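User: Run a structure prediction on this.
Assistant: Running it now.
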Amino acid sequence: MASYKMGIDIGATKTHIGIVKDAQVIQEIKYPTRALAPQEAIIEDLIAQMNIFAEFGFESVGIGVPGLVDDETGIVYDLTNIPSWQEVPLKKRLEEHFKIPVRVTNDANMFALGEKTYGAGKNYKNLVGITLGSGFGAGLIVDHKMYSGILSSAGEMADIPYLDKTIEDYCSGKFFKQQHGLEGIKVSRLAVAGDEKAKQIFHEFGMHVGASIRIIMNILSPEAIFLGGSVTTSYSFFEQGILEKLNDYPFERVRKKVHIAPSKIPNISILGAAALVDAAY
């Protein structure tokens, strides 16, 4: 009989917890993250919410956080959007409380691992998972294993200089507000309604995402690149922008071999988190 596992995605605005069995999230909860609260208060909030699922007898916990993590010790470092979390022994704290294995990693790694374990990434040896949301993240799978680098920082492309700012400024939800004075969700609704200006904004966004993909192709040359995150729900509006930016990629034979697609699996990051304890890396 399959066991129950818990996957957790800790974000600056909300925390998402799910119970996973047989590759499905069978029950979940989302609650606001008190990002400005003291370190221990945030941990106590997390434990209280995890206890809601005690009836399932979950046997392991995987957690993704938006920042640096020591993969061995599970210590979380320097979370920009959760200021009190500068050095948090999260793995130790939760293992002492629940008496089960806990593993912690960067949140972008959860997405890549989820796609590799449960999604279309199963068929690829090397892949990159890009998350396009309030920020920009990338998780790496190399030789069928998650590659996280020093303090789970591999794939941290957000701060790479790009045009007058950074990759994250042009390839995340920040783009819509900074460049066009609109929230991404507003642009999405307008595009769905047929607004041509909104569609052009998304095409422009796709061109920038395409530029980030070119960087990934040059450095890592993966077989597949999967896109996730909240902005990816509008993928149909910026797909052509990506392809246009890649049309003149200098190595045409390489470009034709790289599979680029949005993730099609609901709750893929929670699934990836739940797979952490058993994952090889």
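The chain has a mean pLDDT of 95.
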